[in-house]
C-alpha cells in the first residue's frame, strides 16, 4: 500500500474537501483506512451503513488526507475514484506527502446560547439542513431572533466544540448546531461530529468533544474574534 509507513490499516484519517466554494465553506469527513494498493487507499466512513451514498462524491473530486504518524501530522492530497459499497470508497493518492507540526486552535471555556439537533447516520439530511440554514442566515433578510437558545457551558474553538450531552452518545454521531455569539449577527450554524466522549456523574451526562465538519470560513473567523475578545476582556 502506498505510504504504508505513515498510513496503516485501521488508522483514522480526516478527509478535507479541496474544491473551492463561493460561500467559503469548510467540509471534512472522518474515515478509517481499510486497505489499498500502490496507487491509493480504500477507506470506510463511520456515519452509517450507507454513508458513501449520503455524501455527493464526484469522480476525481480532490481531498486532503491527513492523520498523525510518529508524533507529527502527516498529509497527502488525493482524489475520489469510486464507491466500493455503502461504507467504503476508493481514493487515488498523489505523490506529495508532507509531515507537519500541528498547531492547536485557540479555544476557551465560555457560556453561550446554543441550539442543536442530534442524529445518528443522517449525514445527507443534516448536510441539506445545514445548507438551507446557511442560505437563510446569510441572506439580507436574516432574522435576528434567538428564541429557544439555552445558555450552555462549552469549550469552543474554530475547529470544534465540547459540551455535555445526555447518554447514549456514540462516536461519529452528528450534531447540527446553532451558536449565538452575541455579536449582533445571526447565529453561527455548523454541522459537527462526535470524536471523543467521557461519561461523568455516574454516567448521567457525557462530555462530548466534537469536530466541525461543515462550517463557513466566515463563521470560523467570527468564532476566532469572539474568543479573542473574551480573552482580552
Mean pLDDT: 92
CATH class designation of the largest domain: Mainly Beta
CATH superfamily of the largest domain: predicted glycosyltransferase like domains
Reported by name, the CATH topology of the largest domain is: Thrombin, subunit H
Number of strands: 13
Q: How many helices does DSSP assign?
A: 3
Number of domains: 2
- Give me the Rg, rounded: 18 Å
**Major beta-sheet overview:** 13 strands, antiparallel
Cα distance spanning the termini:
51 Å
Please state the second-level CATH architecture of the largest domain.
Beta Barrel
Content of β-strand: over 45%
Structural class: alpha+beta
Helix content: 10-25%
**Form type:** globular
The low-pLDDT segments are: none
Order of helices and strands: EEEHEEEEEHEEEEEH
Concise synopsis of the structure shown:
The chain has helices spanning 51-54, 123-137, 217-232; strands at 12-17, 25-37, 40-44, 62-69, 72-83, 88-93, 98-100, 107-119, 150-157, 160-165, 174-180, 188-200, 205-216. It has 233 residues and is α+β, with helices and mostly antiparallel strands.
